[in-house]
Amino acid sequence: MTRKREFEFSLAAPIGVHKDGEKHFADKITLVAPSVKNNKSRCIIKQAIAHCIAESQKNRESNSDVVASSETNEDFATLGPIMATSLYVFLDSNQILEVINAFTDLLISGCGRVLDTPLTTFHLEQLDAEDLDKMLGEYIVNFFKF
Predict the structure, then answer these.
(1) 113 - beta bridge partners?
(2) pTM for the predicted model, two decimal places
(3) Which domain holds residue 22?
(4) 37 is a domain residue
(5) 42-70, pLDDT tens digit by residue?
């Protein structure tokens, strides 16, 4: 099975982009799968995900009666927000910042494009914080497999 290498993320709050001497507003960012070049950032994010999964499993085991009665098949569209929320539930603030910094490093090192131009710090500084959280969740769901 072939994995997709990129997908488009729709922003709730468009960002300004200078292209061909003109200012444009973009409401989509193209996200690209990490490569070996991005191993440091990829490993930081993957370790955080593994930690969240392990903590989630501990909680499920201690609350098995609640889990058994709940819906276990999540709609794929809801997995991104769930993953982003899990980071905030199971990680402390320093760990969350480390994951967000690793993700933004990925984006500006070639894993993000806006209007067919590489994402820069200038673009990232315009992002709505909620968009960044949702983008991280979607990125994890699409490119990090366990």
Answers:
(1) 30, 118
(2) 0.84
(3) 6-64+77-143
(4) yes
(5) 999 999 999 998 988 887 766 554 444 34
